[in-house]
Design a protein that fits this description.
Layout: H1 3-6, E1 10-13, H2 17-29, E2 35-39, H3 52-59, E3 64-66, H4 81-105, E4 109-112, H5 118-127, E5 131-136, H6 143-148, E6 154-157, E7 171-173, E8 198-201, H7 209-222, E9 227-231, H8 240-249, H9 253-257, E10 259-262, H10 268-276, E11 279-282, H11 286-295, E12 298-301, H12 311-321, E13 325-327, H13 336-351, H14 361-369, H15 376-387
Parallel strand pairs: 1-2, 1-4, 2-3, 4-5, 5-6, 6-7, 8-9, 8-11, 9-10, 11-12, 12-13
Length: 388
């Protein structure tokens, strides 16, 4: 690679964290060393804990530039009305701040992975003549990337079915990047001193209050037949980690020993948890679904119902088609017993060594791997190099 290309500055806008990190690592592996990361230091409005994004990027020694930008909230409640209004005010501020960052940093290419920060950054990049590339993670077109695609020079998509949403002349089917440490391993770490199935509960980088509080209601019954690793998130708004620890303290000693509670896990720790799990309870973000497809995990998926164009439901349905996923559609009054019953159905299939369609589990796992492009990260880096 020519030295003058390798020395050009690249700006990454986190958005969807996992694929952005995979591309960051590949760029560094190929000798790019002038990279900046633009993201949010706090994951949620009014949340006092620093974001997982900030924590991880700091560990890579990549300069982190904080950008505050607003987004339109799709669900309003009494608890969310104040942060929702704050976000409306921050929308014009985000465009002004993006212009300031780009004018000062002058990157050669802006690399976007969706999210509310990406729109003002890509728009302003186009305005001042900076090249940009955006990556769409989901199987449907979200509103933000629909707008971003009009200003980006290159659009990369994770799924072949998504090609139809974007202009043919600038759209490339690259696949969805998965960090190397998340690939399945031959030997998993054993976290429990028994042979019961291991249930991994997670809700994305921020955790899921919807899943978390319902899980605590069914914990004693679930622990009769499973071990549980619970990734709660670290929100200071809902305090789910503290509440999970309190629930653990009420269990008898045997059950408490089989319930592992963590705020977050990333890099090798998360990879080890995923590798060790027999079944998974999760939201249905594109990254989570891709990892579950790659690992061939039997799963109960609870899509976020207010996600753009119901994208998480469509992600979950894709996993369901392989026989590995069971979709539970969320509604406000959904009782915890619905999750309990769904998990028992998946556990029953696992114990029979079957998928959820009655076929062999091994054949479903082979089918699920065909959905993943293993060279996705390198494909995106090649598109970045073309723009450089």
């Amino acid at each position: 690679m020519r030295k003058e290309i390798r020395n050009k500055k690249i700006a990454i806008i986190g958005g969807h964290l996992t694929p952005a990190l995979a591309v960051l690592n590949e760029l560094k592996a190929q000798g790019f060393d002038d990279i900046i990361w633009i993201g949010t230091k706090y994951a949620q409005t009014r949340n006092k804990n620093v974001s997982l994004e900030y924590q991880i990027v700091q560990k890579t020694n990549t300069p982190f530039i904080t950008l505050k930008a607003g987004k339109l909230w799709r669900k309003y409640t009494l608890r969310t009305i104040i942060p929702a209004l704050q976000n409306l005010i921050l929308i014009p501020y985000g465009f002004i701040k993006s212009f300031q960052i780009l004018s000062k940093q002058r990157p050669a290419v802006v690399v976007s992975f969706g999210g509310h920060l990406a729109l003002p950054m890509v728009f302003m990049a186009k305005l001042i003549g900076i090249k940009s590339i955006t990556h769409e993670q989901t199987v449907v077109l979200g509103l933000t990337n629909k707008i971003i695609s009009k200003f980006a020079d290159t659009v990369c998509v994770s799924w072949e079915n998504s090609l139809k949403f974007f202009p043919e002349e600038k759209t490339v089917y690259t696949g969805l990047p998965i960090r190397e440490e998340l690939f399945p391993k031959a030997h998993e770490i054993k976290y429990f001193k028994n042979n019961l199935p291991v249930l991994l509960v997670m809700g994305g980088n921020q955790g899921s209050n919807t899943i978390n509080w319902r899980l605590t209601k069914i914990l004693p019954d679930l622990l009769k037949t499973t071990n549980i690793i619970h990734l709660t998130g670290n929100s200071t708004l809902t305090h789910d980690y503290r509440k999970a620890i309190e629930s653990k303290s009420l269990l008898d000693s045997d059950q408490a020993s089989r319930y592992v509670v963590k705020e977050n896990a990333y890099f090798e720790e998360y990879a080890n948890y995923l590798n060790s799990a027999d079944i998974v309870l999760s939201r249905a973000g594109a990254n989570a679904v891709s990892e579950l497809l790659l690992h061939g995990k039997l799963s109960v998926l609870i899509p976020i119902p207010w996600a753009s164009n119901n994208e998480q439901l469509k992600n979950a349905k894709m996993l369901e088609e392989t026989g590995l996923g069971l979709v539970v559609e969320q509604y406000d009054e959904m009782p915890p017993i619905e999750i309990f019953n769904a998990l028992n159905k998946v556990l029953d299939a696992y114990n029979k060594n079957e998928d959820l369609l009655g076929n062999s589990l091994s054949s479903a796992r082979e089918k699920s791997k065909s959905f993943i492009k293993l060279d996705a990260t390198k494909n995106i880096v090649e598109e970045i190099k073309k723009l450089l």
